[in-house]
Specification:
By secondary structure, the chain is α/β, with parallel strands linked by helices. The protein has a single domain (about 5-205), classed as Rossmann fold, CATH 3.40.50.880. Helix content is about 25%, strand content about 30%. The chain contains six helices and 13 strands. The strands form three sheets. It has a seven-stranded mixed sheet with strand order 2-1-3-4-13-12-11, sandwiched between helices. A four-stranded mixed sheet has the order 6-5-7-10, covered by helices on one side. The protein is globular and about 45 Å long. It starts with 6 loop residues before the first strand and ends with a helix.
Length: about 200
């Protein structure tokens, strides 16, 4: 694998960027934190982290034209991963606070968690894996990952659902469509399992 390959971690003011970069550094993956659309276009893969509210995130992405670049690059076949809020942004729209249009890379709508359990869903939960994908290579059914969220991506097509957890209802944890992947949990906070998924992503480049 060539060292010249690089992942762009998108900086749009809403995300735990350094922890994602440290996790990528740990596996020897070359990455850059950037808000520069030219750097994003030059990269071999893109990661969109995110913590916060969906409407604020979309406003921030559109302010710099990053939203259009993400859509263009993903549709051109470039490897893409959304993490936590970044996964939710992949969907068509969200009900968080107000109906807001998303990136439209995964069919479906982001909705408030429907559960009798405490919201936000915070902590470790196990994965059910009905359909493997590139980032789940070597990940065992029942593996634990770390979640922090109050909303979830309700997929329109079950074929896009790769893994889910149970939290009073079925909560999508990994979604994908070809070169686009979404992780509702934080792989950078999920120990060896999360590191393995990031390594899988790097090796797909």
């Amino acid at each position: 694998m060539s060292d010249c390959k690089r992942i762009a971690i998108i900086d749009y003011g809403m995300g735990n960027l350094l922890s994602v970069k440290k996790a990528l550094d740990f596996i020897g993956a070359n990455s850059i934190i950037t808000s520069d659309t030219d750097e994003i276009k030059k990269s071999d893969a893109i990661i969109l982290p995110g913590v916060g509210a969906f409407p604020d995130a979309m406003a921030s992405l559109s302010e710099n034209g990053i939203d259009k670049v993400i859509i263009e690059e993903a549709k051109s076949g470039k490897l893409f991963m959304g993490i936590c809020l970044g996964m939710q942004l992949l969907f068509d729209e969200s009900e968080e606070f107000k109906l807001t249009k998303g990136l439209g890379l995964i069919k479906g709508r982001v909705r408030k968690l429907q559960t009798e359990y405490k919201i936000p869903h915070m902590g470790w939960n196990s994965l059910n894996i009905p359909k493997e994908c590139g980032v789940l290579k070597g990940i065992k059914e029942g593996s634990y990952v770390y979640f922090v969220h109050s909303y979830y991506g309700d997929v329109e097509n079950e074929e896009n659902l790769n893994a889910y957890c149970d939290y009073g209802s079925k909560v999508p944890a990994v979604v994908s469509d070809k070169n686009v992947f979404g992780l509702q949990f934080h792989p950078e906070k999920s120990g060896d399992v999360g590191i393995k998924m990031l390594k899988n992503f790097w090796e797909l480049i």
